[in-house]
Amino acid sequence: MADNRSPQERLIGLLAAHQAIGIDTSVFLHHFGSSLPYLPITTALLSHVQSGKIRGVISTVTIMEVTVRPWQLKREAAARQYELYLSHFPNMTLFDVDRHVARRAAQVRASHRLHPADALQIATALVHGATCFITNDYPLRRAADLLTIIMLDDLL
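Request: output the structure for the sequence above.
Response:
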């Protein structure tokens, strides 16, 4: 039976089983870049978080990854705007990479062959109670035994 719901509706349905979700940098890159066909999905996701229906968990790694390009282009104001957005988004907590996250990331990296930044993202979500992680980074599927991985591409 075909699922005739929109990608946004399918995402919200998948999120119903979770109270806290990790959100990967790729979600914000698609959102900030107004990337079609992802923008309606990222907008629905962030609206769901903003309304308090679910709690978002992100890592300071996201600030690094999102602001690299603006810093390269000497667009300091844009880099700072992204950082403010991520730091103050309602119902989303930006967590520093501390010793507990670093230890968990080393374990995740050792067992799932992830790049350091990806392991830090997954570890931040795990340490801070997320049971789901939303991304469009295919290697992160390897962590599906640790938490539910939702790929933006799978919603299209």
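The beta strands are 20-23, 55-59, 92-95, 132-135, 148-151.
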